[in-house]
Sequence to fold (447 residues):
Amino acid sequence: MSEVRVVQGIPNQLTVSAAPRPESTGQDPGGGGARLGWLDALRGFAALAVVFQHAGPELMPGLYRPSHQWLDAGIFGVFLFFLISGYIVPASLERRGDLRAFWTGRLFRIYPLYLVVFAAAMLLPRAHPGVAAEVFQHPWLSAAADGILLQDLLGVGNGLDVSWTLCYEMVFYYLVSALFLLRAHRRSVPVAVGFALTALALGPVLPRYLLVNAGWGEGPLVGAAALVVVVAMAAVLGGRTAGIRAGVVALGLLGLLLVSVDGRSAVFESMMILATMFTGTVVQRAESGQIRRGYAAACCGFVFLAGLLSGILYAGSSLNQIWTASAASWCTAFVAAWLVFGLGLLLRKRPMPSALCRLGALSYAVYLAHVPLLSVVEWVFDDTGYAPHRRLGQELLCGGGFLLLVLLVAEVLHRLVELPGQRVGRRLLKRADAHQGKANLAGQRAG
Fold:
């Protein structure tokens, strides 16, 4: 049973006792020890799928068009990413047992690379843009919405085309933090089932853009959300118990409100994204012995069937609200993501291909950078008059060359931006802890 406690020497910092590590792997699911090779391999596979989804129409249309009718590679890749995040992120928080440390790690994991890629993409010409036109048409609105990574839930276009998934990642972090604070973090099964039930029962009922269309307008709504996020995050990072509690509760409520009634995506898709992520958490809890495996299996089966059924029922009538072109391609992508994750779980004790694991380590950089790089390639093609879609061999050559370019840029970004950003976050956290410890010690002496 978890309990609220204080770190020795830092009584104002809220923590909760960490969950046990999974005995089956002997590795740390939160990333503190050796990396889980099977998760890196799955990340790499997911990254390849998303790159194919975006590059295929331009560089490999002969391969992309027939396959896309039956399976949306992008939806497959992002749902696989969501399962992986659900598996590893709550375990990371519970391993640390410290909300401030968790959020420091998350922010310095996400933002340095995101901001660098965003800034670089803005330099591309308007004829071959790396960012949405709204970034230039409404710069302050876009900066605020994209800056807090909730734009897809605030009626604002995604500055980077792929950043819509980061909105759901952030909402997931908000909810995980709130459950952790309330000591309900072990209740992943009812949470996952609840979101799946909402998708199935209320998919066509809950509104989209309710707040945007209720007289708020995009500007005031974005401003209010940005204020909540900035103040709440400052309170969490400040390390005071009362501030952490208030900040986490505010973020959790904001995230739940926006994803429920103000998202761009069809409600069934938004709910199934969260249900899928929390099901990844259920799998990790079963593997680590925190819950019974039969209980976890029943949850996984229900969420899987609810997702498939809601896709069959609602995707066809929501094609302008989801990231795919047909109900069939959404459903097969959803099923394929779950099957591949399950296969990875079955093979988790086996060695994974080192190249795929390395691609997994670069997956965030690949994910962010590949669309702006595709704009660069299209720019070159337009200027040279080159058309890569005449022969299969030519398509494969173009696709392979583009993937090599993406991997080279991702390697540079990973080494020069992503890893240094994470190191900065760790150093700042250590300094904050040391400062807080000194202040507490001085207070004790003065008392």
